[in-house]
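Re: the request from the purification team.
They wanted to know what the chain is likely to look like in 3D before they choose a buffer screen. I agreed to run a prediction and write the result into the notebook, where they can find it.
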Amino acid sequence: MVKYSKKRRRCSVSDFQLGSVFVHVKDANKAANWYANLLGQPDPEPTEGPVQFMETVDGRGLVIDDNRNNAPDIRPAFMLETKDIRIAYECVSKQGGKIVRDLQEDESVAFFNFQDPDGNIVMVCEQRT
């Protein structure tokens, strides 16, 4: 569990930006080719991993995920991007969001998943590259 400051801080719209939308699929490479064709983009390079990312014109994108690394009940609908994952974690926790996948961090990315009051799963992500 991540420790966060007890100091009162009001969350703001600058703490989060709408990022990407998740598309849950059985075969990430096959689905990525299908969406590339639909969106008029070149076919992406095949990957051995669970995720294909397709950037759209506005910088957001589709995260095409075969969910091999996700529990069946933890499949995010969309991603919120943040510049500070710890502040975002604090904001979600103080707002009453239920953390369903604790903070994962490495040198290029940090993320966690939470459940909103209606049961929707949302990923919060900080890109570090």
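For the purification team: The chain has two domains: 21-66, 70-129.
Please add any questions underneath this entry.
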